Amino acid sequence: MGNTYANYVVIDLGGQFTWLDCDQYNSSTYRHVRCWSPKCKATIGGDGASCIDCKEKPHRPGCTRNTCAPSSYNPKTSMFTVGGVGEDTVHVSSTDGNVYLDDENMRHFTFGCGVKDLLSSLAKDTVVPDCELAYIRLLPSPSEL
10-54, pLDDT tens digit by residue? Predict the structure, then answer.
């Protein structure tokens, strides 16, 4: 994801959008999603007016006073957190286990910034220690937004 390649753990908790832990996230291709923008409205619903103020330290990457801010939810612990929405390029490779099949770059992949605490109470072996992100649910492709 972004300008560096890494392997990530994928988890579907039935949430409304994709999120990742942005505390250590650093990418030159990351861009925040602005409040009231069509993408913010599609991500959080309503008028897209929920914004994050970036007062927390450390700041999320690309956070501004105009960053779209949905909440993330872990249904197992009933924990909510609020973070900014961003977009970046995701590099996806596929294989049948033996042979490389396809390679794709998805530009403008949209995700929310959450916190690792959202992963609490999941099965012990569900998450690789120090994993960089956990997906809740993928958004529709950008052409569907």
Answer: 555 555 667 776 766 777 788 888 888 888 888 777 766 678 776
Domains located in the chain, CATH noted: 9-138 (2.40.70.10)
Q: Are 131 and 36 in contact (CB under 8 A)?
A: no
The alpha-helical segments, DSSP class H, found in 24-132 are 38-44
pLDDT tens-digit readout, 125-143: 444 333 333 333 333 334 4
Residue at 56: amino acid letter: E
Q: Where are the alpha helices (DSSP H) in 7-132?
A: 38-44
d(CA 37, CA 43): 10
**Collapsed DSSP state (helix, strand, coil) of residue 27:** coil
State how far the Cα of 138 lies from the Cα of 109, in Å rounded to an integer: 9
pTM, two decimal places: 0.63
